[in-house]
Amino acid sequence: MDKRRHPRFPVGFRSSFSSINVVSGDGILQDLSLYGCKISSAVHVRPGTGIELSIEAPNDGLPIRINQAVVRWSGNGWFGLEFLDIRETEWTRLQRLVKAVGKEPYQCRAEDEKA
Q1: What is the per-residue pLDDT across 54-74, written as a single tens digit (0 to 9) for each?
Q2: Beta strands in the chain (DSSP E)
Q3: Could you tell me the pTM of the whole model?
Q4: DSSP, res 30
């Protein structure tokens, strides 16, 4: 049974992360919610590590920047983040992105065709 409070949606976005003097690297964001995500990466990141995250969403220009996230779990090339601090403008962009990826695929295609 999934105990998450916020739905997560499968994605495949490129991401990069860094923590002052601790770790930095790239990964693939595998699922996304308004308050966290799961990332696959060759870089091992320990639970409790605070990091900055950039999410490279397609068709969105500049990456979405999460000022502060904390690693809640890690293992076998994966780690889970909880977002703690994000600027208001980035929060708005993240909300739009999560709403878009949460739509059924046919809804996204229909909207793209209208544009």
Answers
A1: 999 887 789 999 999 999 999
A2: 9-19, 23-32, 36-40, 50-56, 64-75, 78-85
A3: 0.81
A4: E
Six-digit token string for 66: 């999460």
**What is the average pLDDT score of the chain?**
86
**How many CA atoms are closer than 13 Å to the CA of 8, on its beta-carbon side?**
19
Looking at the DSSP bridge assignments, the partners of residue 24 are 18
SS3 1: coil
Alpha-carbon distance of 33 to 104, in angstroms, equals 16
Domain ranges of the chain: 9-114
DSSP string, 74-99: EETTEEEEEEEE--HHHHHHHHHHHH
Q: Distance (Å, rounded) from C-alpha 19 to C-alpha 13?
A: 20
**Topology annotation, domain 9-114:** Thrombin, subunit H (2.40.10)
User: How far, in Å, CA of 70 to CA of 58, rounded?
Assistant: 24
CB 97 within 8 A of CB 64: yes
